[in-house]
């Protein structure tokens, strides 16, 4: 049973939830309400640490660093030092921007590195173990954020995180299940047992003193500790011992990028989202513009017509994603054309309510003159009016499963987000082309969609999700649930979701959440239905500014997520 604790006078608001919550009970639901500031993340420890930084006078960027590192301690499934991510921000004075701290391909990587001598893809090689690891960007990302926007010393920001690593966190039921599920893969990747492969019971406290020591060295030596110092050297030595190609040179050459966000108008909303090397902002923008003229509110939430319109727009946008999008430092991306109304109207010309457009009959759109991929999200709004949306990833659950015991963290398998071979699907079933081919130093295409939305020129929502290819459509449906279907933030996050990504040509539905009547009608119109047994589509954490100026946090019922505020 969901517990919502409204403690307006003693400042802290905590939402706890469990997976038995049923969708039909969502009707009157409201998330945690906060007067001034709020943090929503995948773990209550991380949200509480982020909030404690705000309570000490820190800003959203200080809290971003603390929350992110606390997720690395308490949510090793996706929280990380050995991965990367993206941040979209909007400051109190309305300035917006985006930080790209995505991983990149090692200098010794090559286009065909995941093919055997017959040209066949070796999928495990880009997913498990040392060859799957891209150059991590997370530590560079937090120091870059601190340098530009931080207001508290890094030692003060990381103090509660180091304490969490030393004192430990309580293992939840979901975590315990995951440790068992991945134990064999941990062994295969490391050829040894690791901290997370030991036998734990739900409710045990897990301490990570090695990670606490790594964090202390980061406090002492800064960014250089990871990219030039002891931590980097130990990580590279471990990777090379396990057959990897990542070198100190790769670490020394790693840079973050401040980028201009994708800006898209949707009705009275200004959508500010992540540009390439994430596909998130462009694909979200394309879908929103393709559906803008359809009266979804009249059709109804998750009605037949709404599902059709969204599916067909998603199909077309993901086809474009696969052809046009990659690292903007390596490929020219026709961003303006891809987001132009004329082009998107033409893309929807072939849509009919009568029957599905088969993906086999649909390619990427033609743009004249053009020549020519588990994760966690958190949102924060501080008491000063700054807002951030951060999505960060190791890619698969626990990344490559490679764990540097001495340093206390997992390494990503982000290399699988590249296209190993044109037309061959990655772990999310996404197809890529030349634009997302592997090249030394290149960043792999992402679907992460950290997004901030303005309404009438003011902050309105911060939203994002994990879920690989389903990130974009989860963010899309959460926005529409509030803007078109008048849901609260919590309802919007909890509502059942569906997903289409061009190929495979099927609509993926969360199980037991859509009526047989709707599914049957879709089948009759030619849609292929996949109601995966245990499918979770996204795990959205979001913040909505309410008309009275307070904030509502939506922490996804699908995880151990928690919103806290004051
Ligand atoms: N690793 C998932 C993504 O970036 O899309």
TrEMBL record:
NCBIfam families: g_glut_trans. One of its GO terms (molecular function) is leukotriene C4 gamma-glutamyl transferase activity. This is Glutathione hydrolase proenzyme. This enzyme consists of two polypeptide chains, which are synthesized in precursor form from a single polypeptide. It comes from Autumnicola patrickiae. It comes from the Bacteria. InterPro entries: GGT_bact, GGT_lsub, GGT_peptidase, GGT_ssub_C, Ntn_hydrolases_N. Coiled coil: none annotated. Pfam families: G_glu_transpept (PF01019). Cleaved by autocatalysis into a large and a small subunit. Keywords: Acyltransferase, Glutathione biosynthesis, Hydrolase, Transferase, Zymogen. PANTHER family: GLUTATHIONE HYDROLASE, GLUTATHIONE HYDROLASE PROENZYME. Belongs to the gamma-glutamyltransferase family. It catalyses: glutathione + H2O = L-cysteinylglycine + L-glutamate; an N-terminal (5-L-glutamyl)-[peptide] + an alpha-amino acid = 5-L-glutamyl amino acid + an N-terminal L-alpha-aminoacyl-[peptide]; an S-substituted glutathione + H2O = an S-substituted L-cysteinylglycine + L-glutamate. Pathway: Sulfur metabolism; glutathione metabolism. Its EC number is 2.3.2.2, 3.4.19.13. Gene3D superfamilies: 1.10.246.130, 3.60.20.40. The keyword Acyltransferase applies.
């Amino acid at each position: 049973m969901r517990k919502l604790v409204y403690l307006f006078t003693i400042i802290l608001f905590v939402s706890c939830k469990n997976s038995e919550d049923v969708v039909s009970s969502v009707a009157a639901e409201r998330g945690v309400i906060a007067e001034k500031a709020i943090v929503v993340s995948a773990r209550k420890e991380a949200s509480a640490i982020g909030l404690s930084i705000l309570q000490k006078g820190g800003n959203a960027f200080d809290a971003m660093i603390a929350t992110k590192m606390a997720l690395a301690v308490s949510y090793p499934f996706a929280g990380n030092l050995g991965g990367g991510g993206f941040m979209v921000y909007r400051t109190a004075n309305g300035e917006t921007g985006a930080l790209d701290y995505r991983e990149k391909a090692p200098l010794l990587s090559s286009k065909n590195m995941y093919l055997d001598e017959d040209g066949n893809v070796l999928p495990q090689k880009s997913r498990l173990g040392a060859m799957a690891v891209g150059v991590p960007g997370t530590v560079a990302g937090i120091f870059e954020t601190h340098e530009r926007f931080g207001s508290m010393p890094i030692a003060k920001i990381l103090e509660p995180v180091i304490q969490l690593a030393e004192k430990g966190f309580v293992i939840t039921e979901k975590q315990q299940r995951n440790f068992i599920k991945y134990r064999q893969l941990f062994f295969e990747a490391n050829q040894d047992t690791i901290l997370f492969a030991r036998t734990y019971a739900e409710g045990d406290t897990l301490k990570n003193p090695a990670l606490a020591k790594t964090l202390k060295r980061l406090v002492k030596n800064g960014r250089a500790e990871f990219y030039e110092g002891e931590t980097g050297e130990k990580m590279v030595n471990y990777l090379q011992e396990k057959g990897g190609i990542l070198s100190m040179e790769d670490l020394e050459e790693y840079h973050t990028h401040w980028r201009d966000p994708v800006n898209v108008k949707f009705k009275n909303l200004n959508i500010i989202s992540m540009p390439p090397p994430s596909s998130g902002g462009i694909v979200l923008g394309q879908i929103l513009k393709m559906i803008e003229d359809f009266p979804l509110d009249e059709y109804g939430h998750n009605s037949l017509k709404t599902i059709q319109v969204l599916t067909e727009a998603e199909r077309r946008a993901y086809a474009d994603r696969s052809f046009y999008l990659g690292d903007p430092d390596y490929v020219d991306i026709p961003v303006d054309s891809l987001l132009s109304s004329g082009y998107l109207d033409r893309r929807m010309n072939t849509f009919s309510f009568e029957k599905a457009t088969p993906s086999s009959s649909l390619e990427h759109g033609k743009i004249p003159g053009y020549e020519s991929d588990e994760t966690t999200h958190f949102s924060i709004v501080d008491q000063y009016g700054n807002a951030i949306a951060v999505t960060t990833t190791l890619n698969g659950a626990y990344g490559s499963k490679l764990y540097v015991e001495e340093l206390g963290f997992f390494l990503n398998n982000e290399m699988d987000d590249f296209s190993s071979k044109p037309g061959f699907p990655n772990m999310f079933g996404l197809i890529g082309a030349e634009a997302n081919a592997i090249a030394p130093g290149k960043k792999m295409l992402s679907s992460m969609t950290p997004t901030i939305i303005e309404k009438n020129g003011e902050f309105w929502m911060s939203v994002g999700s994990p879920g690989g290819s389903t990130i974009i459509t989860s963010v899309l449906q959460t926005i529409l649930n509030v803007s078109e279907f008048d849901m609260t933030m919590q309802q919007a996050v909890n509502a059942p979701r569906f997903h289409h990504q061009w190929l495979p040509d099927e609509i993926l539905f969360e199980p037991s959440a859509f009526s047989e009547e709707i599914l049957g009608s879709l089948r009759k119109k030619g849609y292929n239905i996949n109601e995966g047994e245990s499918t979770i589509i996204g795990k959205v954490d979001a913040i909505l500014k309410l008309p009275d100026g307070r904030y509502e946090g939506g922490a996804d019922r699908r995880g151990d997520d928690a919103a806290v505020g004051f």
